[in-house]
Specification:
The chain is α/β, with parallel strands linked by helices. The chain contains 18 helices and 17 strands. 47% of the residues lie in helices and 14% in strands. 42% of the residues are buried.
C-alpha cells in the first residue's frame, strides 16, 4: 500500500514537472524572471487535474488495482483524500488566477503599479537608451500608478449641469459624453508616464484607446498594457499597435473610425498630425503637446543654492530630453558671475554613466541620431560666439552608450539659434540681462510657451512673473521640469494645441 502511494505521488510530481518544462516560458521561470503568480497557477492547475484524474480512475474500481491497495475500504479512503486534495487545489488555482480581478474590482489596480518593484518596471528602466537613472525610471513607473489611482477616482466625479433656459418653462441639461475611439501617439522620453497620463483619463471618461508608442520603447509600452489587461481591463478597450509612426501613425490619422488623436512629440510632426486630423473625413478632434525652449529667470535677489539646483536639475537631468527642460537660463547681471561659477561647481559632481548603475545622475543620450543633433547644436553655439564653460565632450563608459557631458554656454544672446531652437539634449545657455523687465521680455521672446520659471525672493517679481510669463506652466524657485499629475498640463503658442481630456 505504501509503495503504491509513493509511486502515485511521484508520478503526479513527474507529470507536473514535465508539463512545466515543456511550457516555452519555463526557462524564464528557472532564471527567476517569471512572476511567481504564474508559477503557482501552473502548479495548482496541473496537480489539481492530476489528482482529479486519479480519483476518476479509482471510481472505476479496476480489478487489478483494488487488491494491490489492500481492499475496498482502503481504496475508498484513498478516493476520499484525493477528492479533498483536488478540491483544495482547484480552489487555490481559482484564487491565484482571480485575485487580481478582485483587487481591480475594488479599485486597487494602482497599488500593483506603485509597488516598490512593480511588474513592468524593468521594461521602463532597463533599455540602454534610457536617459535617466534607475531611481528616475522606477519613479516614473510609480508615477504611472499614481495617475491611474487619481483617474480611478475621477470616474465617480463625472458631473453634468442643469441650467434654466432663457425661454420660460424650458430646462437645459449639459452632459459630457465619451469622444469614442482615441488614437494616442506617444514619445520615447517618458515611455510609461506619458502613455499613462493619456490612457487613464481616456478610459475614465468612457473612451476606447488605440495606443502607438515610439518605436524606441516597445517593451515599456507592452509592459504597461499587459499590467492593465491582467488587472482586468476588458478586451478591446485598450489596444496596442507598434511600428513606424510614418506608417502606423498615418493609418490612425486616416482611419474613419478613429474619432480623436492625442499626440506628444516634435513641432514638425505635430503640425502634420493637426493638418491630417482637419483634412480627414469626418474631421477628428486633436490635441498636441510639442516642444519647448523653456526659460528659467534668475534675479539678483535669488537664493544662489536654490537657483543653481533648479537650473542644473531642470536643464540637464533626464539628459535634458524632456520638453519642459530649462534650456535657457536668463540671469540678471548682479548674480551672473556667481551663478556661472556655482553651476560649474555643481556640474563637477554630476555623474554621467550607465542609467542602471547606482550613483548615476545622468544616463546616455537615447540614440546616435539624438547625439548627432546635440553635437550639432554645440558646434552651432560655438560658431555663433557662445563660450563653452563646461562639458560638451563625448564620454566613454564601461557600458556601451551615447554618453555626453552636459554642456553649458555663456556669452549668448536670445537671437542665437541655441536660444531659439529646441535641442532636446543636455545643452543649456546662459543669457545675461540687466533687470527684471528685460528678463521677462527675453523669457517671452520665443515661439514656444510650455513652461517657465523664476528664482527670486521678491514676492512682487514672483507674482508679476506668474501672471505675465507667456507659458502654460510657471514655476517659482523650482525647476521648469516636473509637473503634478492631478492638474492641467499644457502650453501656449507653438508648444500645445487643442484639448480633448482634462489632463494631457
Amino acid at each position: 500500500m505504501e509503495h503504491i502511494k509513493r509511486f502515485f505521488w511521484l508520478f503526479l510530481l513527474a507529470l507536473s514537472g514535465l508539463w512545466w518544462l515543456t511550457d516555452p516560458p519555463a526557462l524564464a521561470t528557472l532564471t527567476g524572471l517569471r512572476p511567481w503568480r504564474d508559477v503557482l497557477m501552473q502548479v495548482t492547475g496541473v496537480l489539481g487535474i492530476g489528482v482529479m484524474s486519479a480519483g476518476m480512475v479509482l471510481a472505476l474500481r479496476p480489478k487489478w488495482f483494488e487488491p494491490r491497495l489492500g481492499g475496498l475500504d482502503k481504496m475508498y479512503r484513498l478516493h476520499k483524500w484525493l477528492g479533498i486534495a483536488g478540491l483544495v487545489l482547484a480552489i487555490s488555482h481559482w484564487v491565484v488566477a482571480q485575485g487580481p480581478k478582485w483587487l481591480s474590482g475594488l479599485g486597487l489596480i494602482a497599488p500593483r503599479v506603485r509597488s516598490p518593484r512593480p511588474e513592468g518596471a524593468d521594461a521602463a528602466v532597463s533599455f540602454l537608451q534610457s536617459q535617466r537613472g534607475l531611481a528616475e525610471g522606477i519613479g516614473e513607473a510609480g508615477r504611472a500608478g499614481q495617475i491611474f489611482a487619481f483617474f480611478a477616482g475621477e470616474c465617480l466625479r463625472l458631473t453634468g449641469e442643469a441650467l434654466p433656459s432663457v425661454r420660460p418653462g424650458v430646462g437645459v441639461e449639459i452632459t459630457r459624453e465619451p469622444v469614442g475611439i482615441v488614437g494616442m501617439i506617444t514619445p520615447w522620453n517618458f515611455p510609461i508616464a506619458i502613455p499613462a497620463w493619456k490612457i487613464a483619463p481616456a478610459l475614465a471618461y468612457g473612451n476606447w484607446v488605440v495606443f502607438l508608442p515610439a518605436d524606441l520603447v516597445p517593451g515599456s509600452a507592452w509592459a504597461l498594457v499587459d499590467i492593465l489587461q491582467r488587472a482586468g481591463l476588458p478586451k478591446g478597450v485598450l489596444n496596442l499597435v507598434m511600428g513606424r509612426g510614418s506608417v502606423v501613425g498615418q493609418a490612425l490619422l486616416q482611419h474613419k473610425d478613429v474619432h480623436a488623436i492625442s499626440f506628444t512629440g516634435s513641432v514638425s510632426t505635430g503640425r502634420k498630425v493637426a493638418e491630417a486630423c482637419i483634412a480627414s473625413s469626418p474631421m477628428k478632434k486633436v490635441q498636441l503637446e510639442m516642444g519647448g525652449k523653456n526659460p528659467l529667470v534668475v534675479l539678483d535677489d535669488a537664493d544662489l543654492k536654490t537657483a543653481v539646483e533648479a537650473a542644473v536639475t531642470g536643464a540637464f537631468f533626464s539628459t535634458g530630453q524632456r520638453c519642459t527642460a530649462s534650456s535657457r537660463l536668463i540671469v540678471q547681471a548682479g548674480i551672473h558671475d556667481k551663478f556661472v561659477e556655482a553651476c560649474i561647481e555643481r556640474l563637477k559632481g554630476v555623474v554621467v554613466d550607465d542609467a542602471l548603475k547606482a550613483g548615476t545622475h545622468i544616463g546616455p543620450v537615447v540614440d546616435q541620431s539624438q547625439l548627432d543633433q546635440d553635437l550639432k547644436y554645440i558646434q552651432i553655439a560655438k560658431d555663433e560666439g557662445g563660450k563653452l564653460v563646461w562639458g560638451g565632450e563625448l564620454l566613454n563608459r564601461e557600458t556601451p552608450g551615447f554618453y555626453l557631458q552636459p554642456a553649458l554656454f555663456t556669452q549668448t544672446t536670445n537671437a542665437m539659434r541655441i536660444s531659439r531652437e529646441e535641442v532636446f539634449g543636455p545643452v543649456a545657455n546662459i543669457i545675461r540681462v540687466k533687470d527684471y523687465e528685460e528678463a521677462l521680455s527675453v523669457a517671452n521672446d520665443t515661439e514656444f510657451g510650455l513652461s517657465s520659471g523664476i528664482c527670486t525672493t521678491s514676492l512682487k517679481h514672483a507674482t508679476h512673473f506668474r501672471r505675465n510669463a507667456e507659458a502654460g506652466m510657471v514655476m517659482v524657485n523650482l525647476a521648469t521640469a516636473g509637473v503634478d499629475y492631478h492638474v492641467p498640463f499644457g502650453g501656449r503658442k507653438g508648444s500645445s494645441y487643442g484639448s480633448i481630456f482634462k489632463v494631457s
